[in-house]
Hints:
The chain has helices at 7-17, 23-36, 143-171, 181-204; strands spanning 43-49, 55-59, 63-69, 75-90, 93-107, 112-118, 128-131, 135-141, 172-173, 178-179, 208-211, 226-227. By secondary structure, the chain is α+β, with helices and mostly antiparallel strands. A hairpin with a 4-residue loop joins strand 9 (172-173) and strand 10.
Amino acid sequence: MKPKEPLHACTFQLLHYSTYTPKIMRLLLLLAVAFSLSTPIDAQYTLHQVDGDRSMELKLDGDVRIDLSLNGPSFVEGFRQLRGRVAPPRRDLMQIVWETEHKEYTLNTGMRKHEDFDYRGIPELVPMSLALDEIQAIHYRGPRAEKWHTVGQGLTFLGAVTALIAAPLVSANFGDKTFNRDRYYQWAGTGLAVGGIGLTLMLTHRYKIFVISPDSRHANDKRPLWRL
């Protein structure tokens, strides 16, 4: 069986063999692929599967969301999520440069509250240290995966604009009120192809979820547990 080729290699082949892709679209795709390629970053944390031999590295500056329990004398139940960037570890603590915080909790009175905080405007914000036993789950996307996801968003938008807006405009001759059907199919097909590539990149580079605490799983949740 022929081994699978990397996604960026398949993209280059698609661009080479597509005779209907306008030159500007091929140039934009090549720029997008070049933008997504970067030098790998050393790992700062390693997650190990509790009941298996799998491991996963969390790299410095990766996009991370940390799920934490929210407890207090006036709370019936609560949930807290921090979003930020992976920072170098400190002793037995996980550190993140926090950017946003979301809280959901139910008070003893039955009132439910939602709170959101944005810390990105604070200069020289000190990284937050989290004890490992406080963490319920980690949502992680590495620096390279984040770039691919951003590229996917751009290509999806570009493909939609090309298929829905550009294709009809370049195919219509407003002077003699004619419509070039072949040109429309060429541009619309290119837009759909580019949008399909973008959507695939977005779906394949989503956050990976690692459940740390068994308390965060539902009764029928079969996801494996991980430890740092």
